[in-house]
TrEMBL record:
Listed PANTHER family: SPERMIDINE/PUTRESCINE-BINDING PERIPLASMIC PROTEIN, SPERMIDINE_PUTRESCINE-BINDING PERIPLASMIC PROTEIN
Gene3D superfamilies named in the record: Periplasmic binding protein-like II
Predominant subcellular localization, coarse grouping: periplasm
GO terms classed as biological process: polyamine transport
Protein name as it appears in the record: ABC transporter, periplasmic spermidine putrescine-binding protein PotD
Source species: Paenibacillus pasadenensis
Amino acid sequence: MKSLIRSFAAILVVALGCLYLTSWLNSSQGYSGANTLTIYNWGDYIDPELLEEFQKETGITVIYQTFDSNEAMMTKIQQGGTTYDVAMPSEYAIDKMKQEGLLLPIDHAKLPNLKHIDERFLDLRFDPGNGYSVPYFWGTVGIVYNPELVPDGLVFDSWDDLWDPRLGNGLMLVDGAREVIGFGLNSLGYSLNDTNEAHLQEALAKLQKLTPNVKAIVGDEIKMLLANEEATAGVVWSGDAAEIMDENDKLDYVIPKEGSNVWFDNMVIPRTARNLDGAYRFMDFMLEPEHAARNAEYVGYSTPNKDAVPLLPEEIRSDERFYPPPQLTSRLEVYDNLGKRMLSHYNELFLEFKMHRK
């Protein structure tokens, strides 16, 4: 028995020693909560040089992880396996995360650079008073097209132009239920947040008539395919449009007259955050106008930072396709949080549309 006890004690000492050593190594390498910041963001959605500058300026080591959908991001945060300090969800996801208690409230006193955000992008319906989120980027959903490939007279100033039979299998769509069902609703004069079942079925029936023109429904590869002129037109987010047009200056981008989606990605602090001080320092760092301008120029999406806009190159800040005037933005809608049941229904309708193509 004494021998057994001595063996157990020896094992315990070794285990504790290993635990201490692991903790020390992690701390020295920047993996403790105090000197590490774990950021959860969309892919290719920040200028990496800014991350390097933040680390040099603060001494905080950044661990940067990415997600490809709001749903995947929310699931990961709900599970709590990784303690993210800052995340960048979209507006409807923020509303849902608030309801589910996944976010910590924002202390505005710790963000002096919040004063640089354009008032148009504050106090929005998904987060009144910006109690839980700070604007990061914004943009629209519209149509990228190649004027050299489209039939005469087709300028895509209306969603209905997508149904022109002369397109003939020349259209690509982003693989997103809210985007596709949304423009189907908009084309009929309905809100892209419509939950009226008759309107949704009407939109589905109209979208099914679009299938002869749809060459593909794809993810990130839509940027490469459109830039390489693999299709005549595509429904995309404005930041993707900017990237596509940077690769191929023949292309143009338009927001149809019936209206469309205006979306917002905001910085939030998940409830599992360990480095609150680092989270605030990072958010305020990104709100600095010079940093926001550099980030916008790198990523291609529109900055909500009013004092960063004048720092952008003139050809960017004066481009109304990506910085549209108020008379156009007034026709745009933010995605509402439709609730789990209705969001599932949108996904079912979208799947039915995709299956109809086959």
